[in-house]
Task: structure prediction
Amino acid sequence: MTSTFPDISLSTERLVLRPFEEADVPALAEMMSDELVTAWTALPHPYTLADARAWATGGAAAVRTRGRGIALAVTEFLTQRLVGSIVLDHTDWRLRSAEIRYVTAPWARGEGYASESVLAVAQWLFRDPGFERIELRTAADNTAAQQVAQKIGCISEGVLRNAWIARSRTEDGGWTDIRTDLIVWSLLPEDLDGLPGRMADANGFAYPEWN
Result:
């Protein structure tokens, strides 16, 4: 029998992390169409309303029900506006480890939302299911994602050389694939000891391989 995470919602001082809903589709499509998201992820481009609907109404839930991890919409507590998404994936139930990926909407960057949401998931993962390791992978030139990893207490473990394909703008306004290294970060339960309750954020998103 495949292990699965419970169908949860989490809340912080400013955010609610909950399962995706069909009402998220327009904001999700807009967020995932941002140029920086296109550059650093493997998401389809252009990212259409159909792509967003497939994720919000089925794909996100399947991450949990198939035992891969859990996918949550990140929303503002006061406005319910979608500010980002966060995914635990590649879960190893024997090792009690998972990879975390996250995206922040362009309008919400610089507000600390990525750090706040990742910490909420990490604290829950270490406390309730009793996991022992979270891993992040950031493209070598994605300094914003690296700053978020550092601010939440992650430790850099090394470099996977030539292990990712990012995208770069061409002179004619199109996109071209570029090979890049990945920096591997880890977070253990003890790494959260002594961290301040809330931290400033950069533009945060770690590499998401969303299909």
Notes: The chain has five helices and eight strands.
